Amino acid sequence: DYSHSFIIAVLVGFLNSIFSFYWLYQPLNSTLKMPFSFNIFILFLFFLFSALPLGVWVLINKFLQPQNSYSPFTAALSWSVLEYLRFEFLNLNPFNYFAYSQSSFNFIARYAAYGGMFLVSFISVLIASYLVKLFLEPKWKKGVPLAVFLIILAIIPIFIGPQSDVELKQLKFDLLINNSQAKSSTFEEIENEIDNFASLLGKKKNKYILTAEDSLSFDLIRNSYYREKLFSQIKAELNGSYLQLGSHAAAAANYNARILNSLFLLSENLEVINRSNQELNFLAGINLKNKEKIIDFFEGYLRFNQGMIKKSKSTEIIEINELKFINLIAEEIFIPVISRKNNYAGNINLIINAAAEEKINSKVYNNLALAAAVYRAAESNTALIRAVSGGYSAAIDYQGKILVKEKLKNDLKSFNLTLYQGESYYQKNPTKIINIILIIFTVIAFVKIMIKLRKNLSSRN
């Protein structure tokens, strides 16, 4: 019955949430600084909320399914609609999307370029539902629709690709991930950190060098002594290259300024071309009707550090020679294109995601962050490079395919990457495909309700 199905689904969803999001305890504890029992209670509510969509979907799917058979299309349709509605109106868990679990399968992940995560979820649930149907009734005829669907999935990208080969270009990059001394910044350790960084930089092979957001533990803005010491050692090593250097740095030159993880884009002459700061916004990617008021409440009444909660801002486009890129630092990678109001659509050919993941120390989070990067690349048809300490550094092509995936530790990695500059179909029409799915779902639901009402009326008569 419905109640039994709902309880089982919520239980399964709750267990899945525990295994998928247990790592949230560490950032929650450091942000709230509350007793262990309080943090566990908050997590319990979060896990329960994350489990509810599965329970609701089971009820909706059970209602819409044909009486004497199982329709994979109906299952996929209802799942995608529920995910989208949750995303639009109550997105308290920006990580809990089925598409994230399928990021390693580029065969379907690349469809994010047409309909975002919601289309990928639709395709994934459709395939899974056909497999379930085959398992329940192992007959070759039952596998024909799945085989046809997989063939269609393979053919479509051949005919729908980049607009022109002229817009494709190959560039070479270096990823430099060094051992930062952030935990204990004594004078000797900082000097060793500088020597180590300069030594790794001496192995560079390419024009563009990217680092993690915590590559240096000292304040690059206010600590002029160590800044000059670093610059004196790396100036000769740059030799015509551009270095994007991650460092702890003050928001301004004064001693009262907040310390942020920042990225400094340096020219071969060590001039700062651009600075990008970490958002430090744990409400990033969450959609709520009165989100700005909630942020004001946290800042005003709960007196949160203003660096932890910020109102959203537009992403800055940075240009160097043939490169036009944006920086998504740390948790910004979880914000989908659809939430960014297309403020960089078609104007960039690269996304750089710099982060530091040592403190979370979870393989689940490492994989989740990498999955998010795959979808930011696929949904915008833009190549993406991850420069991460403590997690997976990666190079992802403009179709969402992972070309390089390594947990670099005190090492330098060189690779080639094909860049494409142009809008994806999803950027041009961010809600078109999901609106079509919504319309079909509404029609099916309406017909099903009418049939139910008719049966009830006829049984009374």
Show the helix and strand layout.
Elements (H helix, E strand, L loop, with lengths): L1 H20 L3 H8 L3 H29 L7 H18 L16 H4 L2 H25 L3 H20 L8 E10 L9 H15 L6 E4 L12 H15 L3 E9 L8 E8 L5 E6 L13 H10 L17 E3 L2 E5 L22 E7 L6 H18 L2 E7 L3 E4 L5 E5 L4 E10 L4 H4 L3 H29 L1
Parallel strand pairs: 1-2, 2-3, 7-8, 8-9
Antiparallel strand pairs: 1-12, 3-4, 4-5, 6-7, 9-10, 10-11
Helix pairs in contact: 1-3, 2-3, 3-4, 4-6, 4-13, 6-7, 6-11, 8-9
- Uncertain segments are 300-312
For the CA atoms, what is the radius of gyration? Answer: 24 Å
Percent in helix: 40-55%
N/C terminus separation: 26 Å
Number of helices: 13
Note the quaternary state here.
single chain
The averaged pLDDT comes out at 85
In terms of DSSP E residues, the strand content is: 15-25%
Number of strands: 12
Which geometry do the CA atoms define? elongated
Q: Which secondary-structure class do the elements indicate?
A: alpha/beta
Main sheet: strands, sense, barrel: 6 strands, mixed
- Strands of the widest sheet, in order across it, are 5-4-3-2-1-12
SSE succession = HHHHHHHEHEHEEEHEEEHEEEEHH
How would you characterize this protein structure?
By secondary structure, the protein is an alpha/beta fold. The chain has helices spanning 2-21, 25-32, 36-64, 72-89, 106-109, 112-136, 140-159, 187-201, 224-238, 291-300, 363-380, 425-428, 432-460, and strands at residues 168-177, 208-211, 242-250, 259-266, 272-277, 318-320, 323-327, 350-356, 383-389, 393-396, 402-406, 411-420. A 6-stranded mixed β-sheet has the order 5-4-3-2-1-12, with no helix packed on it.
